[in-house]
Design a protein that fits this description.
heterodimer, A: 299 residues, mainly alpha, Vanadium-containing Chloroperoxidase, domain 1, 2 domains, 3-stranded antiparallel beta sheet, 12 helices, B: 456 residues, alpha/beta, Rossmann fold, 7-stranded parallel beta sheet, 3-stranded mixed beta sheet, 17 strands, 16% strand
């Protein structure tokens, strides 16, 4: 055998109903120069058969819309809800936290830009004042509802683009979203503590936040950081899903809603996005098992 | 051999087929099997997609690890495989003029060129790349269709088989090429894709492959045209002024790059008329090549079409069950439950799928039965190393490999530009007429072979 391509002359892969079979092109594998497979114990009379795990539904990987719709139809009658997914986090994620803090050096000093100076922050509040006025117009009624819902652990923004907000068969995906939100909450708080930027209403008292100011610093926005982290992580496991990019737009909506609520500067939003992007390599290690489990619900 | 004529509908009786049928179909397989062995690395294929499982035994010799870059986590790119070394790769086209008329892109190019200085850190400011092989499914399948090499690996004893060598007789369309993974994220941030194209330009890629869409909010639904106000109203969050400027420049950059090297794009998997963005940039005046999919019967795949498409290439098929067409897989287990009109196109459906490389082990599109990590330097099974694949992603990857093979074999001169590459590609294609339309199809030696002619 002089060149790897010469293998094509003597052996071949064949797709069978049950998987991929390795065969000699013109005889047995032994005759092809690969002894050891042609015993009575090997399958398929001289070929080595191995399962490809290629069930027929795998074909739908090219079209996630169709796959998703089938799943939705299947689940609608079962009355599933995202809340079922919280069962995956009924225990505190101690293993993941342990790994996270073991690799603290990888995420405690990521190059998040320094926050704006006080004058720039004051200028940013001018835009927040304009949003404050518009928020109370009829045109922004939906945004007001979103802001209220997103102040808690509402997962609609992340699950609805994927079409699984009313399904019960995606426990691992929902569990992964919750895990990312929890871990990023802790990571984000460490950055908030470092930069200690006051909330916009401290800089501009004419801002009347739609919700009460949370009891921690402003920069970066944890809503932004968490939401974008969910988008980055989900797009890592579902790059072909048509909603992969939509998840980022929804994340941005969640983050900007906090600006409309008078709780965050636009610079907080941007920093949250950048931190989420940079922390994804850490999350794909810390959340590896949950990401793999979630991926299997889709492939 | 299964006698398909005597199988019952819905019984899932599918006849065997060769895993490399797609290469045979375009005339490449016999050329690779029996033709000349040429020098490797003459052609460089930049794949803008997800990351790649570079340790796959069929991909390890193909991937240039020094040039592989990741823009997922770091806007200026992280080099995943340098470990403790400083950057020491050669970037042959740092002085490119591709962004001269695009001010925002030019600024980004300057940043990127500075970042690529010899001796710089592979991970800028400590930001690691997001390139875990666990989550590199799509890119791994794509890379395999472009440039995988056959390999011989050790099989660990088990299942009645002793320790021995096992061949993996799988290859891409150009097993002589060099693959450069340029991994990106799916954030609708134009800067990421601009950086990816600029990097492909800087490394002087022979071929650029983009087997995905670009989420430009103003182009992703072409039917909405230029109604920016309506699109803004639809968007959950609006792009800012800088993003607007970058979105405007990106298609100009792609076209500008395509004049220097072919940019091969997937046309879309939902019969999008004219193709998805940026495949729909393809026209006679640029080097963008839009690739649709044909099935193993030589017919337009159920999810593809020919409008605006440069050519079709082998891929899997999809059932149709709509007002325009009924084309069902009669062997599918659900078939007996469906109401199938007497006049149907079921005979046009092909169950043949594309086989490609997959993330080894319990991850990826196909899973290993073993829960533990893959052993180093040996396999326990090879099923998880390969997967079924399809769509216009697969077709575009096959075409990218086909064009690259032209460069590798010196049939197509390096540096001829995207338009010349497109002309060459069409000259190496044959026109196929079907009831559903005509299309070009790659044919290395002037003839094609469709292995699944049953029922036609």
């Amino acid at each position: 055998m002089n060149h790897p391509l010469d293998l094509l002359k003597t052996t071949e892969f064949v797709v069978t109903r049950t998987g991929l079979a390795l065969r000699g092109a013109a005889g047995t594998l032994t005759e092809a120069g690969f002894p050891g497979f042609d015993s009575g114990k090997s399958a398929s009379g001289g070929s080595l058969t191995t399962l490809l795990s290629l069930n027929r539904s795998a074909r739908t990987t090219l079209n996630r819309n169709r796959n998703r719709n089938r799943n939705r139809n299947r689940n609608r009658n079962r009355g599933g809800s995202p809340d079922e997914g919280t069962a995956n986090l009924s225990l505190e994620p101690w293993r993941e936290r342990m790994v996270l803090y073991q690799m603290a050096g990888s995420w405690t000093d990521l190059p998040v830009p320094l926050p704006p100076d006080p004058e720039q922050l004051r200028i940013e509040t001018a835009e927040l004042l304009r949003k404050q006025v518009r928020l109370h117009t009829p045109a922004e009624a939906q945004r007001r509802d979103e802001i209220r819902a997103e102040s808690g652990l509402d997962l609609t923004a992340y699950l609805r683009p994927l079409g699984i907000d009313d399904c019960g068969d995606y426990e691992a995906t929902v569990g992964l979203v919750l895990l990312v939100l929890l871990l990023c909450d802790e990571i984000g708080l460490s950055y908030k503590h470092r930069f200690d930027v006051p909330r916009p209403s401290y800089i501009e008292p004419r801002l009347r936040p739609f919700l009460a100011n949370p009891p921690h610093a402003s920069y970066p926005s944890n809503h932004s950081f968490q939401s974008f982290a969910v988008a980055f992580v989900l797009s890592r496991i579902l790059p072909e899903h048509p909603a992969s990019s939509e998840l980022f737009l929804r994340a941005r909506r969640v983050a900007e809603n906090r600006e409309w609520a008078g709780l965050h500067y636009p610079s907080d939003t941007h920093a949250g996005h950048d931190l989420a992007r940079m922390v994804t390599p850490v999350l794909e290690i810390v959340c590896r098992e949950q990401m793999l489990a979630a991926q299997k619900e889709w492939i | 051999m299964l006698d398909q004529a005597n199988t019952q509908p819905g019984s899932e009786d599918y006849a065997d087929y060769p895993a490399l049928w797609h290469l045979d179909s375009i005339g490449v397989l016999s050329h690779l099997r029996d033709g000349a062995r040429v020098k490797e690395g003459r052609s460089r294929v930049a794949i803008i997609d997800t990351s790649v499982a570079v340790d796959h035994p069929c991909l390890a010799p193909a991937v240039n690890r020094d040039l592989a870059v990741d823009f997922f986590s770091n806007r200026l790119g992280a080099f995943p495989y340098y470990q403790d070394r400083k950057l020491d790769a050669t970037f042959p086209n740092l002085a490119t003029d591709v962004a001269d008329a695009l001010p925002a892109c030019r600024d980004l190019l300057n940043e990127l060129v500075d970042r690529l200085a010899r001796g710089s850190a592979p991970h800028v400011k400590g930001v690691a790349p997001a390139t875990s092989p666990d989550f590199s499914t799509h890119g791994t399948a794509i890379a395999g269709l472009v440039g995988a090499r056959p390999a011989t690996v050790s099989l660990l004893p088990g299942g009645g088989i002793g320790s021995c060598e096992v061949p993996l007789p799988f290859c891409g369309a150009d097993p002589f090429c060099e693959i450069i993974p340029i991994s990106t994220n799916f954030d609708p941030d134009p800067e990421v894709l601009i950086m990816a194209f600029l990097y492909a330009e800087i490394i002087d890629a022979s071929v650029i492959l983009l087997p995905r869409s670009i989420p430009d909010p103003y182009r992703i639904v072409p039917e909405l045209g230029g109604d920016a106000d309506f699109i803004d109203a639809v968007l959950p969050a609006k792009p800012n002024a800088r993003e607007h400027a970058l979105w405007r420049e990106l298609p100009q950059l792609i076209i500008s790059v395509s004049l220097k090297r072919p940019v091969i794009c997937a046309a879309g998997n939902a019969r999008e008329r004219g193709g998805i963005y940026p495949a729909n940039l393809a026209d006679a005046d640029n080097g963008v090549i839009s690739v649709g999919a044909a099935n193993a019967k030589g017919l337009i795949a159920g999810y593809s079409q020919t409008d605006g498409v440069t050519l079709l290439a082998p891929s899997n098929d999809a059932e149709r069950y709509d007002r325009l067409s009924v084309r069902l897989d009669v062997q599918d287990a659900r078939f007996p439950d469906r109401v199938c009109p007497a006049q149907n196109g079921n005979a046009k459906f092909s169950y043949f799928e594309i086989i490609s490389t997959d993330v080894p082990g319990r991850h990826g599109y196909s899973y290993s039965p073993f829960a533990s990590e893959e052993p180093q330097g040996a396999l326990r099974e090879f099923g998880s190393y390969f997967c079924r694949f399809g769509g216009t992603s697969a077709a575009s990857a096959i075409v990218a490999g086909f064009v690259s093979l032209g460069y590798s074999m010196d049939d197509l001169r390096i540096g001829t530009g995207g338009l010349a590459a497109k002309d060459w590609l069409l000259s190496k294609s044959v026109q196929i007429e079907t009831d559903d339309g005509a299309f070009f199809y790659p044919a290395w030696s002037g003839s094609v072979n469709f292995p699944d002619l049953y029922g036609l």
